[in-house]
UniProtKB/TrEMBL annotation:
Keyword presence, Ribonucleoprotein: yes
Residues forming coiled coils: none
Any one Gene Ontology molecular-function term assigned to this protein's record: mRNA binding
Compositionally biased tracts (Low complexity): 25-46
Name recorded for this polypeptide: 30S ribosomal protein S1, chloroplastic-like isoform X2
Highest classification ranks of the organism: Eukaryota, Viridiplantae, Streptophyta, Embryophyta, Tracheophyta
UniProt keyword terms in alphabetical order: Ribonucleoprotein, Ribosomal protein
SUPFAM superfamilies per record: Nucleic acid-binding proteins
UniProt keyword RNA-binding present: no
Similarity comment: family membership: Belongs to the bacterial ribosomal protein bS1 family.
One example of a Gene Ontology biological process annotation: translation
Length: 386
């Protein structure tokens, strides 16, 4: 109540705490201690301050030099630097130069390539492969693929390079043809054109020519879109001449046709007397009497053009270019070519071996009989070889 009736009265506070003075045993030692502490603190502070000031001055000087004269102390000028940069070797960007790049993306028109010389380059679809393709992926080109390209031009709009793989493959194809000619091997070419002078073929992605005199058949028609066995006659990249021979390849192929051997063939056509069989570029006759042990009245009921079958070589006349074939000798059971041709295909090699063994036995028996006859008739060689 007193506080309410006397609002101006002073508030009461707790009494102040008494002050305690610190006493020292000796005034001289106290003074000395304080002096040492103060002088040490001043010494550290002065050293740090000097170092900081020194660093500030150095940074300030460096900043000033960068702004006012950035090339001070450099033994060459900016013009010298640009001149040296122009003289430094860099990837050639001239037409015909080769450059290595990485494919980064593909589309229906071609592929986008990252090359060191430019920020971007483009590989058109038509330049992606020697062969005709519908998409670059058919040539094995995918993002991440690294290839060596030939520069064939520059895009006028954005300055990007236009590249070609076809040119690189073209050079490799010529080299491959030279090797094949040196090895004297038989290759297969697809006929893309025919006229009285000969055939135009595609070999290793290159256009070659087969003169009519080098074709095994007298006619130069009926070959279009077919594959022919060929041998190289002339390979001249500088003159763009690639000449081949079908006749030479056929002769080599005929040398490999051993009587009793089994050959894979395709039915070319069916006649009343038999079927013509294509065996990798040369043709043989499968006579109606050599199709099966059972009698056949209609060959078309058994064989159709395009059918694939295994046949045995029965005879081979190289001079007349005639090969006689048989499936009759390959039948495990008489009539299998009519009732189970698949079994004949599967057992062909096995049956051919049995046939060869029988032929060998017959030849041995014939030889023995001849020797016996000569011995009994006195027609053998005498002791004096007469």
């Amino acid at each position: 109540m007193t506080a309410l009736t006397n609002p101006l009265s002073k508030p009461s506070y707790p009494p102040p705490r008494p002050l305690h003075r610190r006493t020292y045993s000796s005034s001289s030692s106290s003074s000395s201690s304080r002096s040492r502490i103060v002088s040490a603190a001043v010494s550290v502070s002065n050293s740090e301050t000097r170092d900081r000031e020194k660093l500030k001055r150095l940074f300030a000087e460096a900043r000033r030099r960068c702004h006012l004269d950035p090339t001070e102390g450099v033994p060459f000028t900016l013009d010298d630097f640009h001149s040296a940069l122009d003289r430094s070797p860099s990837p050639a960007c001239d037409v015909g130069a080769k450059v290595r790049g990485t494919i980064v993306a593909t589309d229906a028109d071609g592929a986008y390539v990252d090359v060191p010389a430019k920020s971007s380059a483009f590989l058109p679809l038509r330049e992606a492969c020697l062969h005709k393709i519908k998409h670059v992926t058919e040539a094995g080109l995918r993002p991440g693929s690294q290839e060596e390209f030939v520069i064939i031009g520059e895009n006028a709009e954005d300055g990007s390079l236009v590249l070609s793989l076809r040119s690189v493959q073209h050079d490799l194809a010529w080299e491959r043809c030279r090797q094949l000619k040196a090895e004297d091997v038989v290759v297969h070419g697809n006929v893309v054109g025919e006229n009285k002078g000969g055939l135009t073929v595609i070999v290793e992605g290159l256009h070659g020519f087969v003169p009519s005199s080098q074709i095994s058949k007298t006619s130069t028609t009926g070959f279009l879109n077919k594959d022919l066995p060929l041998k190289f006659v002339e390979v001249d990249k500088e003159q763009s001449q690639l000449v081949l021979s079908n006749r030479t390849a056929m002769m080599d192929g005929h040398d490999q046709l051993v009587i009793g051997s089994v050959v894979l063939g395709n039915v070319l056509s069916v006649k009343s007397y038999g079927a013509l069989i294509d065996m990798g570029g040369f043709t043989g006759l499968l006579h109606i009497s050599q199709i099966s042990h059972e009698r056949i009245s209609d060959i078309a009921s058994i064989l159709q053009p395009g059918d694939t079958l295994k046949v045995m070589v029965m005879s081979h006349d190289c001079e007349r270019n005639r090969v006689n074939l048989s499936t009759k000798k390959l039948e495990p059971t008489p009539g299998d070519m009519i009732h189970n041709p698949k079994l004949v295909f599967e057992k062909a090699d096995e049956m051919a071996e049995i046939f060869k063994q029988r032929i060998s036995q017959v030849e041995e028996m014939a030889s023995s009989m001849i020797l016996k006859y000569q011995s009994e008739s006195g027609l053998g060689l005498g002791s004096r070889g007469v």
